[in-house]
Design brief:
Layout lengths: L2 E6 L14 E2 L2 E2 H15 L4 E6 L2 H9 L4 E3 L7 H9 L8 E5 L8 H13 L5 E9 H10 L8 E5 L5 E5 L9 H5 L4 E7 L2 E5 H9 L4 H6 L3 H6 L5 E4 L14 H15 L1
Parallel strand pairs: 1-4, 1-6, 4-5, 7-12
Antiparallel strand pairs: 2-3, 6-11, 7-10, 7-11, 8-9, 8-10
Helix pairs in contact: 1-4, 3-7
């Protein structure tokens, strides 16, 4: 089983142009993500690592931080389109492709390792992605964040077979008798999705060939296309430290929040 970690890093973001190059506590966000991939390579030396971009400014930065960069089309509609294009340009075509988002600087190393293990344990798995059960304090923090940046933070519904039933930028599910639930567990029933996907290459090819889904367009979540077309997504439960659940940088406001997280982690 050959594996590639590909980091799609698009410069021309509509909401936040140039965000892969934004500095977080003095280091570019892309550099922080690349370092996560390098940590994975210490445990899995055979894994290929590359950045996929459409912009020369990001390619130039990749030279500065000494990581392989693959120039892709500026017509890629989603990160997964870019990941596939780059994967097919690698010298050795991988069986498994992990798309590590270029705006996800807080993904812990063990999360990616859990995705790799999920493929090893379940040869039938087509797509794997991590979810984390939110503690009540983390759920409250997400609720406070939503009025400010409503499209930051994705939640998921997972069934008893660890299959993802739905994803939303809203907080799902709605919770009745919340106070009663708090007395029974420190964890809420809300799962937050961490924006990493592992695909079998043939499934990724199929995915990008499908027409975009109705709900995918409404929510702005490409993974809903998989669900709308009946492709199962295996939700891999992972644990992360309190305060580190926020995985993505979608707006300038998120950068300030990210720097606060880094200060908390340093304490």
């Amino acid at each position: 089983m050959t594996i590639a970690i590909i980091i799609p890093a698009r410069y021309a973001s509509t909401r936040f142009p140039g965000k892969p190059l934004v500095k977080i506590a003095g280091e570019s966000m892309l550099s922080r993500v690349v370092n996560i991939g390098r940590q994975v390579q210490k445990s899995y030396p055979e894994i290929m690592l590359a950045v996929a971009t459409e912009d020369q400014r990001i390619a130039d930065h990749c030279k500065e931080i000494d990581v392989t960069c693959i120039m892709t089309s500026d017509q890629c509609h989603t990160g997964s389109d870019r990941v596939l294009e780059a994967a097919l340009m690698l010298e050795n075509t991988p069986d498994i492709v992990i798309g590590l988002q270029g705006d996800a600087p807080f993904i812990p190393l063990h999360v990616i390792e859990e995705l790799i293990k999920a493929f090893e344990k379940a040869p039938e798995a087509q797509v794997v992605t991590p979810v984390v059960s939110l503690r009540w304090a983390e759920l409250d923090a997400l609720r406070e964040q939503k009025p400010i940046t409503p499209f930051s933070g994705t939640t998921a519904i997972v069934n008893t077979e660890s299959q993802a039933l739905w994803f939303s930028k809203n907080i799902i599910p709605a919770i009745r008798k919340e106070d009663d639930l708090k007395t029974k567990s420190e964890f809420s029933p809300v799962h937050q999705h961490l924006g990493i996907y592992g695909y079998r290459l043939e499934t990724l090819k199929k995915f990008v060939s499908l027409r975009h889904g109705y709900y995918e367009n409404l929510e702005g979540l490409e993974q809903l296309r998989l669900i709308e077309h009946g492709i199962p997504i295996t939700a891999v439960p992972v644990s992360v430290d309190l305060g580190c659940v926020q995985a993505g940088i979608d707006s300038p406001e998120d950068v300030e929040r990210a720097e606060k997280i880094l200060k908390t982690m340093a304490v």
